[in-house]
Amino acid sequence: MENHDREELDEELDDEVDARQLERRMSERRRARSLPACPAAASLLLRKRVQFADSLGLSLASVKHFSALEEPRVPTKVVSRHTARAGGGRLVACFAEPADPDSRVRVLRVCLERLSVTHFDVRGQVRVLSGCARSDVGVRYTFNEWLSHVDAQALLVDAQLAGGGSARYAFTVYTPPEMEAGAAVHLAVYLRSDEGDFWDNNDGRNFTLRYRAGGPEPAHAAGAT
Prior knowledge:
Layout: H1 2-34, H2 39-46, H3 76-88, E1 89-93, H4 101-108, E2 110-117, E3 121-129, E4 134-142, E5 150-153, E6 155-158, E7 166-174, E8 184-193, E9 196-200, E10 207-213, E11 220-223
């Protein structure tokens, strides 16, 4: 009888040990799933996922429909700047009209033919000698006395002018909306070709336009007619 009771007690102890081991293993598994041993893996789990509403089939927050009949709204600051520029001053050419472009283009291979000025841009025409292996025609300009400059490409307007001998290109330089009195725009036109670089920079003086305060005037033009 005592042996039978002892066997039952041993079986109960074994069951209790097995239950504790099973509970400890299940606890370790849960902890392993929730807390990765590697910090990098933990950071991956904590990384946010971004999904777009439309990819999930959800509606967007709002949709703005524009009508072709609706006039665009220009910001007030932009309007005020342009209004002040239109009525406050103008750019004035500080050089004589380029004369005899036919002769000058034969000597320089490239020359400024005409320049027109409005309140917001400067537009020019450039003559280039025909027969040049030209690769690039443009204008170099600066708003800060050559501390920096920009090269803008000129576009071909007429490949063969009447009388032959030259082609015509055109460019546009957009000027700043606000300029101080006395500020200047300096520019020169160029031709880059396989034979070298050629310039018309008003005999080294540049073509200069200076901002002068005053009432509005019609667009100023300088150049051959």
